[in-house]
UniProtKB/TrEMBL annotation, chain A:
Keyword Aminoacyl-tRNA synthetase set for record: no
Function: Catalyzes quinol oxidation with the concomitant reduction of oxygen to water.
Main location (coarse class): membrane
Highest taxon in the source lineage: Bacteria
Native organism: Fictibacillus halophilus
Protein's recorded name: Quinol oxidase subunit 4
Subcellular location: Cell membrane
Region ranges (Disordered): 111-140
Protein family (similarity comment): Belongs to the cytochrome c oxidase bacterial subunit 4 family.
Entry EC number(s): 1.10.3.-
Annotated keywords: Cell membrane, Membrane, Oxidoreductase, Transmembrane, Transmembrane helix
Automatic annotation (TrEMBL), chain B:
SUPFAM superfamilies assigned: Cytochrome c oxidase subunit III-like
Protein name: Quinol oxidase subunit 3
Chief localisation class: membrane
Record's bilayer topology term: Multi-pass membrane protein
One Pfam family recorded for the sequence: COX3
Membrane-traversing stretches: 25-47, 67-84, 96-113, 133-160, 180-200
Key words of the record: Cell membrane, Membrane, Oxidoreductase, Transmembrane, Transmembrane helix
NCBIfam families found in the cross-reference section: QoxC
Subcellular location(s) of the protein: Cell membrane
Family under the similarity heading: Belongs to the cytochrome c oxidase subunit 3 family.
Amino acid sequence: MANKTVANEHHGFPWKHLIGFVLSIVLTLFALWIALGTDLSLTWILIIIFGFAFLQAALQLLMFMHVTENSTKSNLTSRVQIGNILFAAFVAIVIVIGSVWVMTAGHAKHDKDQHAPKTENHENHGGGSEHDSGEHGSHE
Amino acid sequence: MAHAETHDPNTPLEYRSETGRLNILGFWIFLGAEIALFATLFATYMVLSHRIADGPALGELFEVKSLLIQTFLLLTSSFTCGLAVHEMRRHNVKGLITWMAITLGLGLGFLYFEIQEFLHFIHEGANIGTSAAWSGFFVLVGTHGAHVTFGIFWVTMVLIQVAKRGLTPATSAKVFITSLYWHFLDVVWIFIFTAVYLMGMVTHNG
């Protein structure tokens, strides 16, 4: 089945590549315009431009990198390829969003403001409070 | 073909040897690891991007013109790289080498403008040690630039081999793998374009 796709593709004009290229240019310019040329709120700008980025990445994978292509009669290799890339994308998203959330949500500050530090904070109280007082010393 | 395996005549050359198939599959798995590597650098950058100490803000120094030149050079190089593989599958060695040479030229152009931009930032007082934010910036964008540099050498070596040995199941698999690497660099750049440059400019202006 996939061999058929390949056969259609490597004769004649490379439409797939041309369409991929034009779409990537359009998405880039549109993202730039959304970011710098509109008065949308920051949240909406970020949602839209990151949506475009993932769309463009999918475009590269499908139009240029032939991610769905397989060589053998079983679909196993292409499934491994796609599964691996999707898993890697999931890991990437967890690393980035997780790091930003952990580092900016201010869990330690929240605990302290309520004057009810959790037990795990008690155990390294010395280090913890030193760090906290650096960030908002007015409390102490 | 001197191979015992039977193939559909439409099977691309790079998939006709066991080694070629396994190497391509293995390279996809390597790219998965590369995604994880860049994810850590993106995470570091995004956590630190507001820690500018006494240095300039990131968005303050970014310029749309330089950004667009670099982006278009890399996007176009990804396209020409795709055309090179397209020509390879038509067994057109001359077309393959021509499009790949154009790809390398565009890659070199990208590196030229990136280095110019780095020098401009350093001139404006933002080097890798200025602040945590700029450290994150130079490590992330610099790692991508180092990948492009490596890619240029790699593709050149593979092209020399193709010119010497012609298109075989072995050389065509190598060309195909370098093309995957090159497209991947473009994918990473799309996220640098969005998460570093656009986000930096938006948060600085807004």
